[in-house]
């Protein structure tokens, strides 16, 4: 019997916000605002209404390197969670909200690749983005920055 291995692409960061889930959700669920939050996202265009099955066209940037991607919303639970998959690299990005009570919310951002990453993505990450470990460290830092920006906006608006 083979023991399943941990997802080597799994990254998870969380932050507590002094704002209720509804306020955090209002900021987070508007995917067009992702460039405000994410250091690497330059544009996220939602085709149609944000719901399960909605598609997006995205432009990402790290330093001088820019690349397009597409994604599809695979989970949409108002005031609880939103997730989108990125077919070009096999990743799923999830944002979950936990009501901590007393007008506070925990946001958990997770990046995973349940089926592993694609060959093309592995090659591009190795050649242009510092390799798996280097890019994962960059992503984790950027995820923390993303959550800090959402926190600041939600606390200001809440």
Short description:
This protein has 158 residues and is of the alpha+beta class.
Cα distance, first to last residue? 51 Å
Overall residue-averaged pLDDT value: 93
- Are there runs of 5+ residues with pLDDT below 50, and where? none
Helix content: 25-40%
Largest sheet: 7 strands, antiparallel
Tell me the strand order in the biggest sheet.
Answer: 1-7-6-5-4-3-2
Name given to the CATH architecture: 2-Layer Sandwich
CATH fold-level topology: Alpha-D-Glucose-1,6-Bisphosphate, Chain A, domain 4
Give the class from helix and strand content and strand pairing: alpha+beta
Which range does the strand content fall in? 35-45%
Give the CATH H-level superfamily: START domain
Rg from Cα: 16 Å
Number of domains: 1
Can you tell me about this structure?
- This protein is an alpha+beta fold.
- It has one domain: Alpha-D-Glucose-1,6-Bisphosphate, Chain A, domain 4, CATH 3.30.530.
- 31% of the residues lie in helices and 39% in strands.
- It contains 4 helices and 7 strands.
- It has helices at 21-28, 34-37, 119-128, 131-157, and strands at residues 11-17, 41-47, 55-62, 65-77, 81-86, 91-101, 104-112.
- It is globular and about 45 Å long.
- The model has no long low-confidence stretch (mean pLDDT 93).
